[in-house]
Amino acid sequence: MKTSIKNIFTILAVLTFSISFAQNIDGVVTNDQNIPLEAANVVIKGTTLSTITNSEGRFSIESKGKLPVTILIQYIGYKTAELELTAIPVSPINITLHEENQLVEVVVSSRRRIEKAQDVPIAVSVVTGKQAEQAGAFNVNRIKELVPSVQLYSSNPRNTGINIRSLGSPFGLTNDGIDPGVGFYVDGVYYARPAATTLDFIDVEQIEVLRGPQGSLFGKNTTSGAFNITSRKPSFTPGADFEVSYGNYAFLQAKASITGALGKKVAGRISFSGTQRDGLIDNVATGRATNTLNNQGFRGQLLWTPTENTNIILAGDLTTQRPDGYAQVIAGVAPTKRAAYRQFDAIIADLNYQLPSQNAFDRKIDQDTPWRSNQDLGGVSLNIDTKIGSGTLTSTTAWRFWNWDPSNDRDFTGLQVLAKSQNPTRQTQITQEVRYAGQLTSRISGVGGVFFIDQTSQTDGTEESGNAQWRFSQSSTSALWKTPGLFEGYGIKTDARIRASSAAVFGQIDWAVTDRFHILPGLRYNFDKKDAHYSRTTYGGLQTTDPALLALKKQVYSDQAFDSSTDNTDFSGNITLTYKATDKINVYGTYAKSYKPVGVNVAGLPTNSSGQPMTELAVIKPEKVNHFEVGVKTSPFKNSIFNLTAFNTEIKDFQTNVQAAEPGVNRGYLANADKVRVRGVELDASFFINSHLTINGAATYTDGKYVKFTNAPLPLEDTGLTVNGVQVAFKDVSGTDLPGASRWAGSLGGELSDNAKFFGNAGKIFFAADGYARSEFSSSPSASKYLVVQGYAIFNARLGFRASQGLSIQIWGRNLLNKDYYEQLLPAGGNAGQYAGVIGDQRTYGVTFKYSL
Questions:
Q1: Distance, CA of 123 to CA of 108 (rounded, Å)
Q2: Mind giving me the DSSP string for 442-464?
Q3: What integer pLDDT is reported at residue 848 of this predicted model?
Q4: Residue 289 to residue 275: CA distance in whole angstroms
Q5: Of 386, 554, 699, 716, whose CB is crowded by the most CB atoms within 10 A?
Q6: Which residues form the TonB-dependent receptor-like beta-barrel domain (predicted)?
Q7: 71 falls in which pLDDT band (50, 70, 90)?
Q8: Own/partner pairs, 821-825, CB within 8 angstroms, 24+ separation
Q9: Which of 4-18, 257-271, 485-499, 814-828 has the lowest mean pLDDT?
Q10: CB contact at 8 A, 61 and 48
Q11: What is the pLDDT of residues 304-343, one digit of tens each?
Q12: What is the pLDDT of residues 626-673, one digit of tens each?
């Protein structure tokens, strides 16, 4: 990868050009109060020519070459101004700089129009691309440290769930048969696969995190919230950014982006991101570290402006990941209700096996099945924006794909229990959204549109037993279990397919009853259809006709096949009342009726006492959501934000993913919990104390419960439970905590900065620190005392110099206190008692260089 990064930088450097010329440009720089700004840095973009203003704010800079020319004016504590000159002015130009970090002026496009975040009656957090870069947040998993209402759990890219307010995706292994409850959009394109959230950001302009149902604003229905990510667009003004980071564990990350005019009405932008890092966990069996990073991403855009009212952007992207990674470490052993000889410790003792370490944070494994988590994701999109009347008509057409090629060791040991666990998937999607947003009358504005998605997913899986499978599956003291070769090489071939289509009409209006009081009703009609096929066939193992031996083999794997086809329609909607009490206080209340579409199982079903699949679980009922929310957005003093939100969400027929005790149920199965409830309070605050000090923080209290869930799977420690001699398969967990829901989570950060010069460039020298903490949470669909992730806090810091033009440098450190913590705990396939942990990164540190032209 280092060679590829070097070659790309070489190509980009050749493509990058600068403009210079030989005349004087004179001007005066002032602030909003018309006060002259002394020592403002004035730079001719794309050159090394610069000067500073005098005590009267005046400057004169000599330039050489042809027009047009762009000058940048930078001053600490103020937003950088960019001015393009097509002719040398005959008199001094007047330039006004506006204060930086004017928090209440942050704009969003969540309601499909540009407006101030503080005016939007939605709980929304905004992270700019610059903020994300400075905090080292190069993917969603790190954004959760800035927005504590977000939770992301990932035991590998496919098994990724992204939640907002502890809702969105079932906790545990991912099932393709249901839709995520959190929408993920990049430049208006919906990404259907949760794996997209594990990818590195490429040239991001802004990340908006919307909390709560958003079905009347976005094409795909979202019951829990949405990520609305916008990338930097092509510019007719030439520019380039180059960035490279080095760190411990051989961390190397490179980013580059160049933009400029390709013609009078055509501009382009090309962006690249690459990340690599050595492994953080030692595999004593292979002698090398695992859980590496090896990511490359590319994004190209062409902007065509045929008229002043129309913009057309053609974009394409491709991301590849080739890590040796996502291995989990055994975190402990839970005693189950099975007989003594079926306990994990007894099993491994009989097999003369010992774990490489009893402490997960020794970060040692001996897993013998190779870990592979290869994925390719990409697509093309065409976005057309054209102004019609007092609004904008937008069409977004996109095709995307996701290829997943894994290999896992689901027993988490060096024993050949599961010799193979591979379920590669190929997914494609086509989406089309057309919407109109704008002013309809003097008092009414709004957005309305139609949306369609058609996606297919194909999984061709293999799961195969090894020579230790007999002992882990042994369910009696019969000597037949020891039959040589009975289970070795015995496995299943899986064919799982799903086609899902969805069409919707949606809209929301904003009725200004008065200048301060608005009513915002929204409505959505949705049609969803899903067709699924699942079949698996057994193969291998000892070839025998002995009925007793065949019965034992069927206890491990059996043939299974079923088809399902279902569709449903739904009306949903919301109404919001908002009152702007003053220019600094905005109060709103929302009621939303939402839903998540019907689901289908495409990963195998548990079997009943007769050994037949429980086909009644093949189709999962849709979720029905009732959501209430009240909030107040305030700006108590200049350049400050203090927002408070309270919410209550109730979901009937909550879709959850449960792990069966049978190894043949490859990825767990889906089920409905009768009812869940999540309620809580959120706080967002930011304070720009002065041009030297900023402070920001966020906190959330979340109470998530199963109100009623009588047919939940058994917790790990209850595996094998019998009542009156009859084995129990389910448990009533009503009243227990939802998995993944911490009662408390929060983040706090600040930055101290001052004027400085570095290699002749004016900028800021800064020190920034931030922390993220969350309390304990259940890591199991049915609460288990062994699968509770303890609360933790991590701290990060950065020290460096940054400038809008020229060279910036920062030294950074993450998890500075080297805190040992789990991000997730999960039982091994078969529920023999051992469970593993997804371990958070230990202390990492490094340095980042960035050069902007």
A1: 12
A2: SSEEEEEEEEEEEEEEEEEEEEE
A3: 95
A4: 17
A5: 716
A6: 361-816
A7: confident
A8: 821/789, 821/790, 821/792, 821/794, 822/331, 822/360, 822/779, 822/789, 822/790, 823/153, 823/154, 823/789, 824/153, 824/154, 824/155, 824/779, 824/789, 825/331, 825/779, 825/780, 825/786, 825/787, 825/788, 825/789
A9: 4-18
A10: no
A11: 999 888 999 999 999 999 998 788 999 999 999 999 999 9
A12: 999 999 999 888 888 999 999 999 999 998 877 655 554 444 678 889
Neighbours of 287 (CB within 10 A): 7
730: helix, coil or strand? strand
Chain segment 169-219, per-residue pLDDT in tens? 877 666 788 888 899 999 999 999 888 888 888 888 888 999 999 888 888
Q: DSSP labels for 251-280?
A: EEEEEEEEEEESSSSEEEEEEEEEEEE--S
Q: How many whole angstroms separate alpha carbon 154 and alpha carbon 160?
A: 4
Q: Is pLDDT of 103 > 70? A: no
Q: Check: CB of residue 130 under 8 Å from CB of residue 850.
A: no
Neighbours of 66 (CB within 10 A): 8
Q: Is 119 helix (H, G, I), strand (E, B) or coil?
A: helix
Tokens of 534: 């699942």
Enter the DSSP assignment of 233: P
Which of 226-230, 350-354, 604-608, 712-716 has maximum average pLDDT? 350-354
Model pLDDT, residue 15: 40
Q: Are 134 and 143 in contact (CB under 8 A)?
A: no
Query: Cα dist. 654→81, 171, 177, 259, 316 in Å?
Result: 50, 12, 14, 46, 36
Distance CA 585, CA 640 (A): 12
Q: Which residues contact 46 (CB under 8 A, 6 or more apart)?
A: 17, 18, 19, 20, 70, 238, 239, 853
Structure tokens at 29: 């720089």
Q: Which residue has the tokens 């996606």?
A: 455
Q: Is 547 exposed, middle or buried (0-12, 13-18, 19+ CB in 10 A)?
A: exposed
Other Cβ atoms closer than 10 A to 112: 22
Q: Supply 799's token pair.
A: 């020290």
**Could you count the other beta carbons within 10 Å of the beta carbon of residue 278?**
16
Please state the pTM of the whole predicted model: 0.86
Q: Is 14 helix (H, G, I), strand (E, B) or coil?
A: helix
Quick check: 831 and 780 in contact, CB under 8 A? no
Among left, alpha and beta (phi > 0; psi -120 to 50; other), residue 59 is: beta
Q: Rounded to whole angstroms, what are the CA distances from 443 to 113, 404, 422, 510?
A: 16, 50, 58, 8
Task: Specify the residue for token string 């329609």.
Answer: 569
Q: What is the DSSP letter of 815?
A: S
The 3-state DSSP class for residue 282 equals strand
CA distances to 33, 531, 686, 712, 800 from 78, rounded to whole Å, are 13, 56, 17, 56, 19
| Closest by CA position to 412, among listed 470, 459, 472 | 472
Angstrom distance (rounded) from CA 622 to CA 674: 11
End-to-end CA distance of the chain: 25
**At 197, is the secondary structure helix, strand, or coil?**
helix
